[in-house]
Write a structure and sequence with these properties.
Number of strands: 10
Oligomer: single chain
CATH topology of the largest domain: TIM Barrel
Radius of gyration: 20 Å
Low-confidence stretches: none
Mean pLDDT: 93
CATH class of the largest domain: Alpha Beta
CATH architecture of the largest domain: Alpha-Beta Barrel
Order of helices and strands: EEHEHEHEHEHHHHHHHHEHEHEEH
Distance between the termini: 22 Å
Largest sheet: 6 strands, mixed
């Protein structure tokens, strides 16, 4: 848990998404994530080299007198998107006595509808990119006059699979306004996925009962907007910001009878986030807000601009450790 070199007083945070068990990998093998076996290895590495902290410790670090010992680095685990995989992850963490924050887009509970990017992931994973593009074309044709202009950018040929998927994600994040993006993705979800899988929400996301259980395990629940939009790039009106940022906190607290002081920005890059000043002007509802800036969170770090690293499906415990050390040593 200690380092050989002098280290600053601070903690790292990780932002996990998919944690795939055997059944999930077999049913939707195209969805990439950290396998359960590798996740267990990550936890072993964390226990050997870092001081695992609870969400309450992160609060006390930003607002109170919580500090780390010399040559000790803290580590806070977080999970974004309210994925069904997170129930498995929560149980594994509880077995090891680790408390994490699970950030949930409230549309999955309040509306019983999936978050925007998860629709893309599962539809492509199950039915393939070509079929997804066909459904996308049909929906764009119905909702946009210049749909052909957009479809041209998604030209799919052998060898550019990843490039086209990135263009699709960018299109829905930044090129369409958030309302139209949501409308089209829900049309695709209903016609492409939900039609074949009536239990789609249980496949994709957490249920209320699972969230209740996770709270009983000692985990914290934070918000991740309502429908998983890029807050910073959306130019939200006050009523829209209330719907996407403030109401989700009220819903979580009223539904589960808990205090929820944490939020994480969907996508989490600078373009997707509000500055500390912007967030404070718009709402004082939260005490900690997380991005995906790859930094060590120090006493001087704004509690509204906390950084995290997102582990990839390629991150073995050894590789992840090296990346975490790089974050610690980054000036």
């Amino acid at each position: 848990m200690t380092f050989l070199t002098n280290t600053p007083n601070g903690y790292l945070s990780l932002c996990y998404h998919y944690i795939r068990d055997n059944s999930a990998e077999q049913s939707f093998h195209r969805i990439l994530g950290t396998s359960v076996n590798e996740f267990e290895k990550h936890i072993e590495m964390f226990s050997n080299y870092f001081k695992l902290i609870a969400p309450s410790d992160a609060l006390s670090f930003s607002y109170g007198d919580y500090n780390f010992k010399d040559n000790e680095i803290g580590l806070l685990l977080t999970f974004d998107d309210g994925l069904s995989d997170h129930y498995v992850a929560a149980k594994i963490l509880a077995k090891h006595g680790i408390k994490a924050i699970f950030f949930i887009p409230t549309c999955i509970l309040k509306d019983e509808l999936p978050a925007n990017p998860i629709i893309i992931h599962y539809c492509i994973a199950k039915f393939g990119l070509s079929n997804f593009l066909n459904f996308l074309k049909s929906s764009l044709e119905k909702n946009l006059n210049d749909f052909n202009k957009h479809m041209k950018k998604f030209s799919y040929i052998r060898g550019n699979y990843d490039e086209v998927i990135q263009k699709i994600k960018y299109f829905f994040k930044y090129e369409l306004n958030e309302k139209l993006s949501r409308l089209i993705l829900l049309e695709i979800y209903e016609n492409m996925f939900h039609d074949k899988f009536p239990n789609a929400m249980e496949i994709m996301h957490l249920t209320k009962n699972q969230v209740y259980e996770m709270i009983e395990m000692g985990h914290s629940i934070g918000t991740h907007t309502h429908s998983h939009i890029s807050v910073g790039s959306s130019n939200l009106e006050d009523n829209e910001l209330n719907f996407e940022i403030i109401q989700p906190k009220n819903y979580i607290e009223n539904t589960f009878k808990i205090k929820s002081d944490f939020m994480s920005y969907p996508f989490g890059k600078t373009i997707d986030c509000l500055s500390s000043k912007e967030l404070i002007v718009k709402t004082d509802s939260y005490k900690l807000a997380f991005t995906v800036e790859e930094i060590l969170n120090k006493k001087s770090t704004s509690p509204y601009e906390l950084g995290r690293y997102m582990p990839t499906s390629f991150d073995t415990s050894d590789l992840l450790y090296k990346k975490m050390i790089t974050m610690i040593n980054r000036k």
